Amino acid sequence: MIQHLLSASDLDATAATLILDTATEMAAMADRDVKKLPTLRGRTVVNLFYEDSTRTRISFEAAAKRLSADVINFSAKGSSVSKGESLKDTALTLQAMGADAVVIRHPASGAPHRLATWIAGSVLNAGDGTHEHPTQALLDAYTLRSRLGEIAGRHVVIVGDVLHSRVARSNVVLLDTLGAKVTLVAPPTLVPVGAGAWPADVSFDLDRVLPDADAVMMLRVQKERMGEAYFPSAREYSRRYGLDGPRMRRLPGHAIVMHPGPMNRGMEITPEVADSARSTIVEQVANGVAVRMAVLYHLLGSVK
User: Fold this and answer.
1) Which of 144, 188, 202, 203 is 20 to 30 A from 195, comparing alpha carbons?
2) Annotated binding-site members
3) What is the pLDDT of residues 95-130, one digit of tens each?
């Protein structure tokens, strides 16, 4: 197994499937009275978050603790980072403390790759800028497999702010690796330059692709990353690219609706859809713990 998980491209189909299979076993622990395994006892996992996070940080913390690891939560706010300490100096501090793994979220694309050159332990990318978020792609794949039975041959439609979405980038790579067909749907202004070279089709017409979709993944419109107008108005965006009740009913009967969260309810997705039986949004959060347990298990469990 690999030492670091920096990108979805670090995983081939065999490694990704192994993680998903292990996550299934980890999820079964949730029904036990004792939910902990001794696998990572004595190891230290550091959550190094330079950006605000709720789901991902708590999910990684819960995953590490259920594997009996010691967890240190490091927030840039209130630390020496706020005094100007560099990422490298922070990395050397963590190295000196004996961190076995560092889970990092950082606003700069590529920061986890740099961190991996400075410390001896494993580095897990929990989101770097607009680049990637590989464990989110893994938990999305796990959710797809749980609901649909298999991923190979399925058609997954990813809709919305692809330009600023690290979730979209990782999902395109991993889903292609696992044999799914992916279609990106977005306004032309929110399709990244070079997306035509990705292993995915690109469409600007949501209504056209819905009847053929096995799953629709709605992306949050990341207003905080937008320094200018990428579409005329929120109402116009919702009218053309939002998933509402009528559009949901155009999906095949077995199709599911996904969202990595947090949601802009009423913009990219309506409450009717978000709270429907097709929605896997709450499941995705729960599945995140099992998947991240599986990742930590394989990256650290065999390290002596």
Assistant:
1) 144
2) 55-56, 83, 105, 133, 136, 166, 220, 261-262
3) 898 899 999 999 999 999 999 999 999 999 999 999
pLDDT digits (tens, 9 = 90+) for 195-210: 989 999 999 999 999 9
Query: Which CATH number does the domain housing residue 243 bear?
Result: 3.40.50.1370
Tell me, yes or no, whether 39 and 68 share the same domain.
Answer: yes
Binding site residues for carbamoyl phosphate, as ranges? 55-56, 105, 133, 136, 261-262
Establish if 275 belongs to a structural domain.
Answer: yes
pTM attached to this predicted model: 0.94
Asked if residues 118 and 94 have their Cβ atoms less than 8 Å apart, the reply is no
Detail the residues annotated as belonging to a binding site for L-aspartate: 83, 166, 220
CB 303 within 8 A of CB 121: no
Measured CA to CA, the distance from residue 142 to residue 152 in angstroms comes to 13
